[in-house]
Write a structure and sequence with these properties.
By secondary structure, this protein is of the alpha/beta class. It has twelve helices and six strands. It has helices spanning 2-13, 35-48, 55-60, 66-74, 82-98, 108-117, 133-140, 164-173, 187-195, 210-214, 225-230, 232-241; strands spanning 22-25, 121-125, 150-151, 180-184, 199-203, 220-222. A six-stranded parallel β-sheet has the order 3-2-1-4-5-6. Strand 4, helix 9 (187-195) and strand 5 (199-203) form a beta-alpha-beta unit. The chain is globular, with a radius of gyration of 18 Å.
């Protein structure tokens, strides 16, 4: 299965091999089990402001900027004004901050430790703009990430599904597309990784059907981070043989 997926990627992009040097991780839903909190906060606040956004649909918008999500949802009723967008996003942030702090995703530390020990470069590519992001990552994944090798909301003009966040990650690290993997849990994130020309692995940690992620072009899919961790060595072996 792994070799077929790798060969299909190589054929589609005209590469001879994947010379793996870096692994680019989304954060919410991949490194932290935070998407249930985001989905709940979006659902409650959009309802408060008179818009309908189900918890499941919130997963479909994961990776967009807050303003973009509000604009898309509001068009089903009325176009949100700039003032409404600011008020809605502020309320959503406050509601999210009331939720219990999201735990580290099971399996994430284990696979990151392997990646780091093998001399590969782990990077975070997130739409988040949390000022405490690096401290949070260092607390949960000590010694894994470097501040200058992160891509956050402050680095990008366009959010996912635009490939810009992953292209910036490649530029920051000095990597080519066939020297990296993308690890994503969201449809828009998968779109972004695929559009950047990087071998993209979906880890389905939410309520969406597998086909939602596969139809966006994911090269491989795992059903949890422990599943990804369990298969890491086999995947590595398949990458080295091609």
């Amino acid at each position: 299965m792994f070799k077929e997926a790798i060969n299909n990627y190589l054929h589609a992009h005209g590469y001879e091999s994947i010379d793996l040097k870096a692994v680019l991780f989304d954060m919410d839903g991949v490194l932290f089990d935070s998407m249930p909190n985001h989905a709940e906060a979006w659902h409650k606040i959009m309802k408060r402001f008179g818009f309908g956004l189900s918890r499941e649909e919130a997963y479909m918008h994961e990776g967009r900027t807050g303003a973009s999500t509000i604009n898309i949802v509001s068009r089903r009723g009325h176009d949100a004004t700039e003032e409404e967008i600011k008020a809605i996003y502020q309320a959503k942030t406050e509601e999210f901050n009331k939720c219990p702090k999201a735990e580290r995703m099971p399996g994430a530390l284990e696979v990151l430790t392997k990646i780091k020990s093998e001399g590969l470069t782990p990077m975070v590519v997130t739409g988040s703009g949390q000022t405490s992001l690096l401290d949070r990552l260092n607390h949960n994944f000590p010694g894994i990430f470097q501040a200058d090798l992160m891509v956050t909301a402050f680095d990008v003009k366009y959010g996912k599904p635009n490939p810009e966040p992953y292209l910036i990650a490649l530029k920051k690290g000095g990597f080519k597309p066939n020297e990296a993997l993308v690890i994503e849990n969201a449809p828009l994130g998968v779109q972004a990784g695929v559009a950047a020309g990087i071998f993209t692995i979906a880890v389905n940690t939410g309520p969406l059907h597998d086909n939602v992620l596969l139809n966006e072009g994911a090269n491989l899919l795992f059903h949890s981070m422990p599943d990804f961790n369990k298969n890491w060595e086999t995947l590595q072996s398949a990458l080295k043989q091609d």
